[in-house]
Specification:
Layout: H1 8-21, H2 23-32, H3 53-63, H4 76-88, E1 99-100, E2 105-109, E3 113-118, E4 123-124, E5 126-132, E6 141-148, E7 158-166, E8 178-184, E9 190-196, E10 202-207, H5 215-227, H6 229-259, H7 265-290
Antiparallel strand pairs: 1-4, 2-3, 2-6, 5-8, 6-7, 8-9, 9-10
Helix pairs in contact: 6-7
């Protein structure tokens, strides 16, 4: 056995990097909960090492208050486990323990974008709905690609499931209304339903493994999103510009088809040439993105 006497200063020097590592998770927890340090009523310390004056000093500096000392830090986890056991057994009824979604949930939409319906750290059970539409004229079916993750592009997230809603009445793009609903119960089981508001037809899928990832895998996905934030922002802006260009092309061609007889031949030619140029530019942009090149 090694017996060694350390001064407080030396111990603090040796553990400084470990203590600093505890600050980031606290700041992240505050950001996720959309709270400020002043909103926190009590800070409970966990683990015997938190008895170090330096740890308590860092906590006080971060939260602006002395940490709560009414619970033995060596026993906090055991006390929490006992309370949770009592809740599950039905013996403790005056305490409500809430769980949250570890990662955001959404679906793939036009441009291979991941559109989130339920944000990370949303308290469960929860239910959210959004209305989407078709991307093409006379489209009679839509594919629902269910995703989990924090990245804005579908390919960078985890696939939870896929299903198809059929029987949509043929109509111009943008007219049909498809309501997608995410419903998560207290056990974390996800039910995703798509309903065509025009016909009432619906299809759904139940996902029981949305929480199957380990804590390390979830943390990795969150950190990966943070690391690629700037790159992802540029990709998102590019896809948005492509979608806007596509909408302009569609609307202009539709208007020209319906009211072309009211436009002079020279103007019509100029409009058609402009449309073709925009189509080529948009196609080049899509191609360079899809092949990993730069436009």
């Amino acid at each position: 056995h090694l017996s060694l006497t350390l001064s407080r200063a030396k111990l603090e020097q040796l553990t400084e990097d470990l203590i600093e590592k505890t600050v980031k998770p606290c700041e992240q927890a505050l950001a996720d909960a959309k709270l400020k340090p002043g909103d926190i009523k009590e800070v409970v310390l966990v683990g015997g090492q938190t008895r170090m004056p330096k740890v308590q000093e860092v906590v006080k500096k971060l939260f602006g208050k002395e940490p709560h000392k009414g619970v033995n830090p060596d026993e906090v986890v055991a006390v929490g486990a006992a309370i949770q056991g009592g809740v599950l057994a039905g013996e403790v009824k005056d305490i409500l323990l809430l769980d949250v979604t570890p990662l955001s949930l959404g679906i793939e939409t036009l441009g291979r974008v991941c559109t989130k319906l339920i944000e990370r750290n949303t308290t469960i059970p929860t239910k959210e709905s959004k209305v989407f539409t078709t991307a093409d004229d006379d489209q009679t079916a839509v594919d629902i690609h269910v995703l989990q993750g924090e990245r804005p592009m579908a390919v960078d997230n985890r696939t939870l499931g896929r299903f198809q809603l059929t029987g949509i009445r043929p109509a111009p793009r943008g007219v049909p209304q498809v309501e997608v609903t995410f419903d998560i119960d207290a056990n974390g089981i996800v039910n995703v339903k798509a309903k065509d508001k025009g016909t009432g037809k619906e299809q759904e899928i139940t996902i029981r493994e949305s929480g199957a990832l380990s804590s390390e895998e979830k943390d990795h996905m969150v950190k990966e999103a943070e690391q690629h934030a700037e790159e992802d922002k540029k990709k998102g802006e590019k896809i948005e510009a492509q979608n806007q260009a596509d909408n302009i092309i569609y609307a202009t061609e539709k208007t020209l088809k319906e009211h072309g007889d009211k436009v002079g031949e020279a103007d019509k030619k100029n409009i058609q040439e402009a449309i073709e140029e925009l189509k080529k530019a948009n196609l080049r942009s899509i191609w360079t993105y899809g092949t990993g090149g730069r436009s």
